[in-house]
């Protein structure tokens, strides 16, 4: 009787071990298949372009630390160059910066799906009211104002996922930087209320 019980336990252990090996083999096969598909398709990061920017307000006040009030509408377009891969943009924050200092509040772009070889266009407004800026930036802004030329950067910070068939990847960080060279004509009190940047600018994209 005890011998039969021992054989039965040994058989159960062998069965469990075999089932575990089969399960591990199946998981490894799936992972290997996904890896092969990923390497074959090789997703290319999306292309971003700044199509235009309209400045409705760009006023500096206060001393010695400046306070900046801005209102800018930008038009951003993105193209997915992949033939078989879609892109989910889960969360994108758009904001403007001057000499690496953020000068507007981030504007959130709603979640968007972009099919393969598809183009998506957004036109968010970027706002800020009495945002403190460093003293050295106040002097730099004044020099740019007197010169009539201002270089801003429109930046996008967020998360994306790749979609291949029914499979969707994990989230990846995406950072986009778009230069915008604005030409102003205004007096010392501030910039004129409507300035347009209409030369398409190619953005750098890091994923």
Automatic annotation (TrEMBL):
A cellular component annotation (GO) from this entry:
plasma membrane
- Bilayer topology term: Single-pass membrane protein
Which coarse location class describes where this protein primarily resides?
A: membrane
Keyword Glycoprotein recorded = no
Q: List where in the cell it is found.
A: Membrane
Record-annotated membrane-spanning stretches: 20-41
Biological processes, Gene Ontology terms: defense response to other organism
- Matching InterPro entries: LEA_2, NDR1-like
Span of domain Late embryogenesis abundant protein LEA-2 subgroup: 75-178
Name under which the protein is recorded: Late embryogenesis abundant protein LEA-2 subgroup domain-containing protein
């Amino acid at each position: 009787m005890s011998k039969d019980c021992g054989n039965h336990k040994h058989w159960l252990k062998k069965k469990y071990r075999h089932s575990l090996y089969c399960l591990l083999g199946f998981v490894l096969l799936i992972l290997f298949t996904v890896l092969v598909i990923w390497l074959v398709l090789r997703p290319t990061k999306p292309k971003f372009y700044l199509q235009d920017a309209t400045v409705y307000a760009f006023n500096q006040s206060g001393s010695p630390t400046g306070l900046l009030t801005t209102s800018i509408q930008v038009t951003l377009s993105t193209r997915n160059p992949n033939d078989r891969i879609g892109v989910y943009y889960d969360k994108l924050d758009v904001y403007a910066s001057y000499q690496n200092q953020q000068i507007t509040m981030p504007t959130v772009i709603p979640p968007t799906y972009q099919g393969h070889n598809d183009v998506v266009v957004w036109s968010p407004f970027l706002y800020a009211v009495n945002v403190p800026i460093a003293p050295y930036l106040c002097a730099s802004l004044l020099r740019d104002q007197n010169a009539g030329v201002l270089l801003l950067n429109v930046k996008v910070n967020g998360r994306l996922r790749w979609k291949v068939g029914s499979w969707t990847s994990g989230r990846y960080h995406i950072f986009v930087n778009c230069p915008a060279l604005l030409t102003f004509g205004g007096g010392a009190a501030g910039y004129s209320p409507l300035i347009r940047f209409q030369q398409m600018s190619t953005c750098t994209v890091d994923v």
